[in-house]
Structures are given as structure tokens and as C-alpha cells.
Amino acid sequence: MKITIIGRKVNLRDHFKELVMKKLSRFDRIFDEDADAKVVVTVEKNRQTVEITIRSRGMIYRAEASASEMNVALDEVVASLGSQIRRNKKRLDQKLRSSAFDVPPESFSEENREDSFQVVRTKHFAVKPMSTDEAILQMELLEHQFFLFRNEGSGEINVVYRRNDGGFGLLEPDDA
User: Fold this and answer.
1) pTM score > 0.85 for this model?
2) Which domains does the chain carry?
3) Which of 27, 134, 160, 170 is most deeply buried (CB count within 10 A of its CB)?
4) d(CA 117, CA 48)
5) What is the pLDDT along the chain (176 residues), one digit of tens a residue?
């Protein structure tokens, strides 16, 4: 796995970088050498945030943790990533196996789907063209965590969402 470590508003010590390498090495058995891990450490006032994003075989694994000390935040984020992977291990194995043999996921038998995600509600609504500010206002009025809308500037479907830090995020499609 290729690991990139970035420090924002902080100069990272070699000891911390070695600790990051050691902690992420536990995922070597899960990810191949083509996987890319990006570790971003941000220091703001008395809060230190560690964010890890791993890209492997078209899948993205991401976790973020904040603490008063960088090492504590690193421990929390590595534990969070580990639990994400464990929680979804069976589904990930099925995805990897199905892509390896070019077998469509629909061909799995019902017994292999026992832990598949269950959609409990489907909702249809008109997607109106609006600005990002209007979409955030609409989301606030509905008291939702996210809102889907058609961006009046680009004509693309976008999503605005509330971030854990209290700010807002915007998801835009990318030509990939």
C-alpha cells in the first residue's frame, strides 16, 4: 500500500510518520500494493484531526477522528477503519469475488445475500433546478441531513449535506 502523509498547519515528526506506517501496516493483508492511503493531519487550536482515506479497486474507505492529541486521534481513526472493514467484510468479499470472475452480483443465491442491505423505503420527488444556497435553505427548512437537487448552473444532479463540524458539503458528479 502506498501511503501519503500530509500535515496541515503542523510539521509532522518522523516518529509520528513511523507510527502511521506501523498502524496502517495491519491493513496490508486486506489491501494489495496498488492501494493508496492518504493520511491528513490537521491542527486547529486545541483540536487535532486525523483523516485516513484508502482507495483500492474502485472502493473508498474513509474515517476521521479528532482528539486533543494526535496519537489518540490516530488510534481512533485506525480502529474506526478496522471496524468498517470488519462490518462489511462479507459484502466486500462477495464484491471482490464477483468482479474477479466477472459474475454479476444478481447471480448470487439467496443464502449468500442473507446480510445484504435492505431498502426499507423508496421515495420519489421532483428535482427542481436551484442554486446551492437555495438547496441548503430547503434542507434546513425540512430539517434533513442532506438534500438532492438539480444545480441551475450546471444542470447536473447535486447533493448538499450537513457535515459533522457544522458546515455544509456539496457533492457534484465527476466524469470518471
Assistant:
1) no
2) 2-87 (3.30.160.100), 129-171 (3.30.505.50)
3) 160
4) 34
5) 899 999 998 999 999 999 999 999 988 888 888 889 999 999 998 899 999 998 887 778 889 999 999 999 999 999 999 888 787 777 766 665 655 545 455 544 444 445 578 888 888 878 889 999 999 988 887 778 999 999 999 999 999 999 988 899 999 998 76
